[in-house]
Specification:
alpha/beta, Alkaline Phosphatase, subunit A, 7-stranded mixed beta sheet, 4-stranded antiparallel beta sheet, 23 helices, elongated
């Protein structure tokens, strides 16, 4: 018995075509059943254990299944298009039968393998990043291959998952081949007269169109926005099957890489709808700041999110180390979020005002963008510096940063030379080397320095620094329940110790900066995104999962020169960091911002008093989830914490909703305007 038996060839051309047409439908049907089964499995594995039963609406689950099935039908039809076209053109020729059936068998195996492989990848993608495959997946093309492969090998069950993919592929291909062989033995293919054969072909074409569109009743085919069926993100993530999620991600990437002159009329409409005033702002005249020109340092910390830090407890779960004393004494905003959910997205938004993460590798990679923080400080007479413990080959930063007014760029190679290091980890050298290098540079500089330091150590695969002695950590049961550590080779204790060591190194560096003699200083720190691997606690609300700190310290003479008002309840996001730093360091400086404001201003700006993350919007009233239909969750209390009240979920105010909907298009508009100018 052969694995794929021989397929009998009908004598009539129409019979051969009908048989092959039927097999293409069979291919689609098997793929559809597999994707629907995977969705159901993932629902019971990922949604049911994580979401309280009382929050799961039965109607939402059935909509997930029904719409998911329609997306599966579209995917199945797409997989069948190429063999169907091959059958149309080749079924007439008797001599093409054997090569055509061999091609169909190979294609079926490929289609089933791709479906199974992507489904497994999507499972781990959702578990890690809390959303289905999206545009970020293409950023892996620009990462260090060794680092990516090492991370994947160490953090995920590659062998068991590979065996599962192979087994599923073999099973589906075997089933398809067996049914094909049985059908080919039937006499009906030669018994059908021409009229009946043509009628069946017409019915088949209509059915195929239905599958490909996902609908026959709508003017438009099934589209991505149809996939939003619930306010529960975990349910929405399962509606799209993995191939469709990848397809839409590719579309997003294609659109994001297209740049063109901006329409002034469109910009005016978006500005009016967003209600944030001008995109150009100016710091007040401050002669004292103009004379002192303090050093300015911003630390962007890998994965230092509050979704992990909120479990910090000094005596039992010390996640902060030396950073604790600074967080207790200085300005820290906790109702604060990163721009995005991944490093490059947040870095691009924060440093280049770009909602396009691949801006440094795109068609405008050679364009010097006006209004970046580096340009603002460069024009103010500062020495501009970028330091990372990783490699600047990442995302073409070694070439891109100098074009964006960065005087000096340092990465792991410079740190290895400076400290006599002979090896690196998968993502670079230990963070404290980058911090020490930055401190040395600032301490020895006669000119005012604006320096950005990007850390990398708190990233899988996790490594506790060789010479670091961890402070006591007792892994709490609550973290065991909410961390995907089953997918990680390292223990959860190692992961938390790595988190602690990175925070501790930052704390020691801040202490060193504070002790420096000479020029005044402004220090800030934030995280690029949340701690990866932490499952969102649904009952905590959507904010805690994306919350990151914004830490600020200014030396005494800076404080005396600037009117500062600290209100810990002020909400904000990455857009507010540089307006705050500009106000603490620059006099009469013009800068660009999309809704950013000085968080330490005496009086807050109500039109700009919001925080924005790709997944949510927040203001002093509460949080607006942007995954699925926009819904509003009020803050649970007046405390400075992360909790929102799910029981009081409601539709957003129409004015706020309009403002939210205009923000991201405006962000894209301003990038096109800066990169390509205005349409004439």
């Amino acid at each position: 018995m052969t694995f794929i038996p021989e397929f009998r060839r009908p004598e009539k051309p129409l019979g051969r075509f009908l048989l092959l047409f039927t097999q293409c439908f069979l291919l689609a049907a098997i793929a559809i059943v597999f994707m629907a089964a995977i969705r159901e499995l993932y629902y019971w594995i990922m949604v049911v254990p994580a979401v309280p039963e009382k929050m799961i609406q039965t109607d939402d689950v059935w909509r997930m299944r029904f719409l998911g099935l329609r997306f599966d039908a579209r995917t199945g039809a797409i997989l069948a298009i190429i063999p169907l076209l091959a059958s149309v053109f080749l079924s007439y020729f008797k001599g093409a039968w054997k090569p055509l059936t061999k091609f169909l068998t190979i294609w079926a195996g490929f289609a089933f393998f791709a479906t199974a492989f992507l489904s497994v990848c999507n499972f781990h993608y959702i578990r890690t990043f809390h959303n289905a495959i999206d545009i970020f997946v293409f950023n892996f093309l620009h990462e260090e291959p060794h680092a990516v492969m090492t991370t994947v090998w160490q953090d995920y069950p590659i062998i068991s998952n590979s065996l599962a993919v192979i087994a599923a592929t073999i099973l589906m291909t075997w089933l398809w081949g067996r049914i094909f062989a049985k059908l080919s033995q039937a006499k009906i293919w030669d018994a059908l007269n021409t009229i009946k054969a043509i009628a069946l072909i017409v019915v088949g074409v209509v059915a195929f169109v239905f599958l490909a569109r996902g609908s026959l009743t709508s003017r438009y085919p099934l589209r991505r926005n149809n996939a939003q069926v619930s306010v529960i993100e975990e349910i929405n993530d399962l509606v799209l099957n993995a191939p469709m999620a990848l397809y839409y991600a590719a579309q997003d990437r294609k659109r994001s890489m297209k740049f063109e002159p901006a329409s002034a009329e469109k910009g005016e409409k978006l500005m009016a709808q967003a209600n944030i005033g001008s995109l150009t702002q100016k710091t007040p005249v401050n002669e004292k700041l103009a004379q002192m020109k303090p050093h300015v340092a911003l630390f962007i910390m890998e994965s230092m999110g509050f979704n992990m830090m909120s479990y910090d407890e000094p005596s039992k779960v010390d996640l902060m180390g030396s950073l604790r004393e600074h967080f207790e004494k200085d300005y820290v905003f906790k109702r604060f979020t990163s721009a995005d959910l991944h490093t490059i997205q947040s870095v691009a938004q924060l440093l280049f005002l770009s909602p396009v993460s691949q801006v440094s590798t795109s068609s405008i990679r050679n364009v010097t963008l006006p209004g970046t923080p580096f340009e603002v400080y460069k024009k103010a007479g500062y020495r501009t510096v970028f330091v990372t413990s990783g490699t600047t080959a990442w995302e073409n930063m070694n070439e891109y940063l100098p074009r964006q007014y960065v005087d000096e760029v340092y990465d792991q190679t410079h740190l290895m030379d400076a400290f006599g290091l002979t090896s690196t980890s998968e993502w670079g050298v230990e963070d404290h080397y980058a911090f020490d290098f930055a401190a040395d540079l600032v301490e020895k500089s006669d000119k005012p320095v604006f320096i950005v330091v990007l850390s990398t150590a708190n990233h899988p695969p996790y490594h506790v620094p060789v010479n670091y002695t961890p402070k006591p950590i007792t892994v709490p049961e609550v973290i065991n329940r909410h961390y995907n550590h089953d997918d990680y080779a390292q223990s959860l204790l190692t992961i938390m110790q790595t988190y602690q060591s990175s925070a501790d190194a930052l704390g020691q560096t801040i202490s060193r900066f504070k002790a420096m003699k000479g020029r005044e200083k402004v220090i800030a720190a934030t995280a690029d995104h949340r701690m990866l691997g932490m499952r969102p606690v649904i009952t905590d609300g959507p904010f805690k999962d994306v919350a990151v700190p914004f830490y600020v310290w200014a030396s005494g003479n800076v404080k005396n020169a600037v009117d500062i008002h600290f209100d810990a309840k002020r909400v904000g996001s990455h857009k507010d960091i540089f307006p705050t730093l500009y106000a603490l360091s620059l006099s009469e400086a013009t800068y660009r911002t999309v809704g950013g404001r000085n968080l330490l201003a005496p009086v807050d700006d109500p039109d700009r008093a919001f925080g924005y993350n790709i997944s949510l919007w927040m203001d002093d009233k509460g949080v607006y989830s942007l995954k699925g239909p926009i819904v509003f969750f009020p803050w649970a209390d007046d405390k400075v914490d992360f909790m929102t009240d799910y029981k009081k979920m409601s539709k957003p105010d129409p004015k706020v909703k309009a403002k939210i909907e205009a923000y991201r298009p405006l962000d894209f508009w301003q990038l096109n305007e800066r990169a390509c100018g205005l349409k004439k």
